[in-house]
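Justification of resources, computational component.

The compute hours requested in this renewal are based largely on the per-chain cost of generating structure records like the one below. Each record pairs the submitted sequence with a full structure-token output. That output is archived, and it is also reused by downstream analysis tasks.
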Amino acid sequence: MFEKLINFEKMITPSIIKIIFWIGVAASVLGGLVVMFSGGPMVFAGLIIIVFGTLSTRVYCEILILFFKINDNLGEIKEKLCDKDKE
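The structure output for this chain reads:
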């Protein structure tokens, strides 16, 4: 396991992306609540921050994870092509 991490065969960033997602969600909710409790018409702005902040954080994290899935799939394709060439 440690050898795979040292040789960059195993990625740790996908796990970190999940943490970034939850930090982003917490920041969106807290920021939205702060804006909501500032009073007046800002209640609606706070709701918008909560909804779109959470949604944009999710989309951003999904795009990051997509890069890693593409990398994994390309690795599998490469392995299959190398195995086919050996035959």
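The chain has a mean pLDDT of 90. The chain has one domain: 2-86.
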